[in-house]
């Protein structure tokens, strides 16, 4: 039997390189009590390679019906958390298809040996979706590869009394009987792992300030959240947006939302146009504040400009970690250079067995990727100077927003933008395991 495709070797059994999805239209009905999901997903597909087969990723949920427009569907089958669509005849590249999948079941996370669990997960009273890097198939059929970005429309019908927050702009909210309907549109291209739905007994909290650019901000949280904690955590978020817009360029989406769950969370969650924090992370100390900065920075580095393959994760996490240090300096704390030299000394005492440009799936989210990635950027900044460095970051986002990139793209862009041989400068940081010295 013909094996199923893998689009990225860091994530075996996910993604089909034979096609790309241009748009997802998700129509979902969810009963919070009982954890029951019924959905219809309509995928607008463009064929990339001549094929008689399309493979969708869908985990733990039952496929009830499949329909294909633009080609004749011979059969569909479920195999190893995937849906295999076999066509009567081979379709040529650039063929446009519409695939409609009706499905149902009780969603739950998927667990990968090296990556842990991810996906749709029940909270004490609601739902959290943490999909990075392999959890999207737990709630909708998709082509689960980071380089396949699409626009989205998502409709949620949920038990009345529950608030839904998802990617993009809320287009409609209405109540009818025992349910409420929420409709969101994410028009900018989005990778599957960044799609999310947060469901809980939430309310919109009053904003404590707005950025000068007018970027719309929201904070959605439990009504009984402590007000002093809220002010300590998010009282300066509008200033943070202003700083990052100045350093990185305009905020890349229509708005930004923060969701605070009633439950504690070990780490915050990154999604396109929104971030999710546990109640335990709503504090004013540096360990909490840096995470607020980190997740906000991902809107530029990771969500607007997205890696093409998982081995280049430093292009997300190194940039977001460096943004923590930038906010520290801009907000009156330690300088970025002080943070850099502190973490350089700390890394010097750890094992030197990590290759930043290809850490492997086991170390993809190792803290050394974050810190060494940030140090790589600081070494570049110290070499080319502040003016060239921040101009480079702004042009990087401006030219690649909505697209997918690899490390070589950044090196080429940085070299052209600064006039320095950036590839040679950063080679030891990226392609060798020994820790280089920081420039003076």
Helices and strands in order:
Layout: E1 19-31, E2 36-47, E3 51-57, E4 62-69, E5 73-79, E6 82-91, E7 96-105, E8 110-112, E9 116-123, E10 126-130, E11 150-159, E12 163-166, E13 169-176, E14 179-190, E15 197-200, E16 202-204, E17 217-222, H1 227-234, H2 237-248, E18 256-261, E19 269-271, E20 274-278, H3 286-297, E21 306-307, H4 314-330, H5 336-348, H6 367-384, H7 386-400, E22 404-405, H8 407-418, H9 422-431
Parallel strand pairs: 1-11, 17-18, 18-20, 21-22
Antiparallel strand pairs: 1-2, 2-7, 3-6, 4-7, 5-6, 8-9, 9-10, 10-15, 11-14, 12-15, 13-14, 16-17, 19-20
Helix pairs in contact: 2-3, 3-4, 4-5, 4-6, 5-6, 6-7, 6-9, 7-8
Family: Belongs to the peptidase M1 family.
Cofactor: Zn(2+)
Enzyme class: hydrolase
Overall 3D form: globular
Average pLDDT? 97
Q: How much of the sequence is in beta strands?
A: 25-35%
Number of strand segments: 22
Helical/strand content category: alpha+beta
Distance between the termini: 59 Å
The CATH topology of the largest domain corresponds to: Immunoglobulin-like
CATH superfamily of the largest domain: tricorn interacting facor f3 domain
Give the count of structural domains.
Answer: 3
Which strand order does the major sheet show?
Answer: 4-7-2-1-11-14-13
Number of helices: 9
Largest sheet at a glance?
7 strands, mixed
Instruction: Evaluate the radius of gyration.
Output: 22 Å
CATH class annotation of the largest domain: Mainly Beta
Level of helix content? 25-40%
Poorly predicted parts:
none
CATH architecture tag of the largest domain: Sandwich
EC number: 3.4.11.2
Keywords: Aminopeptidase, Hydrolase, Metal-binding, Metalloprotease, Protease, Zinc
GO molecular function, one term: aminopeptidase activity
Pfam families: Peptidase_M1, Peptidase_M1_N
């Amino acid at each position: 039997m013909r094996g199923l495709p893998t689009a990225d070797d860091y994530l075996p059994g996910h993604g089909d390189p034979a096609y790309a999805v241009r748009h997802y239209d998700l129509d979902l009905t969810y009963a919070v009590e009982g954890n029951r999901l019924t959905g219809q997903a309509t995928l607008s597909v463009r064929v990339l390679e001549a094929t008689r087969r399309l493979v969708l990723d869908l985990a733990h949920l039952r496929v009830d019906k499949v329909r294909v427009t633009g080609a004749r569907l011979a059969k569909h089958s479920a195999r190893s958390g995937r849906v295999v669509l076999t066509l009567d005849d081979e379709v040529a590249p650039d063929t446009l298809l519409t695939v409609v999948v009706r499905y149902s079941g009780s969603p739950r996370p998927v667990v990968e040996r090296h990556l842990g669990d991810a996906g749709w997960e029940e909270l004490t009273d609601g739902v959290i979706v943490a999909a990075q890097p392999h959890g999207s198939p737990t709630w909708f059929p998709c082509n689960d590869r980071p380089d396949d970005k699409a626009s989205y429309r998502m409709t949620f019908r949920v038990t009345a009394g529950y608030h839904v927050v998802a990617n993009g702009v809320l287009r409609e909210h209405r109540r009818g009987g025992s349910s409420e309907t929420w409709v969101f549109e994410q028009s900018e291209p989005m990778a599957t792992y960044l799609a999310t739905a947060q469901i809980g007994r939430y309310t919109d909290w009053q904003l404590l300030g707005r950025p000068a650019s007018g970027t719309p901000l929201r904070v959605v949280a439990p009504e009984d959240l402590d007000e002093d904690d809220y002010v300590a955590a998010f009282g300066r978020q509008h200033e943070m947006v202003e700083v990052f817009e100045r350093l990185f360029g305009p905020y890349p989406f229509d708005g930004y939302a923060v969701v605070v769950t009633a439950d504690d969370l070990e780490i915050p969650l990154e999604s396109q146009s929104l971030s999710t924090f546990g109640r335990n992370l709503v504090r004013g100390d540096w360990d909490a504040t840096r995470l607020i900065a980190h997740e906000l920075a991902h809107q530029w580095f990771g969500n607007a400009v997205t890696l093409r393959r998982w081995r280049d994760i430093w292009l997300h996490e190194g940039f977001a970690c460096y943004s923590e240090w930038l906010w520290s300096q801009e907000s009156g704390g330690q300088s970025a250079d002080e943070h850099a030299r502190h973490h350089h000394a700390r890394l010097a005492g750890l094992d030197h067995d990590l290759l930043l440009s290809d850490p492997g799936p086991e170390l993809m989210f190792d803290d050394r990727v974050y810190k060494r990635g940030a140090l790589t950027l600081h070494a570049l900044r110290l070499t080319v100077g502040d003016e060239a460095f921040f101009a480079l970051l702004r042009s990087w986002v401006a030219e690649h927003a909505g697209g997918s990139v690899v490390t070589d793209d950044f090196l080429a862009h940085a070299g052209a933008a600064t006039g320095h041989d950036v590839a040679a400068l950063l080679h030891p940081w990226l392609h060798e395991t020994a820790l280089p010295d920081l420039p003076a």
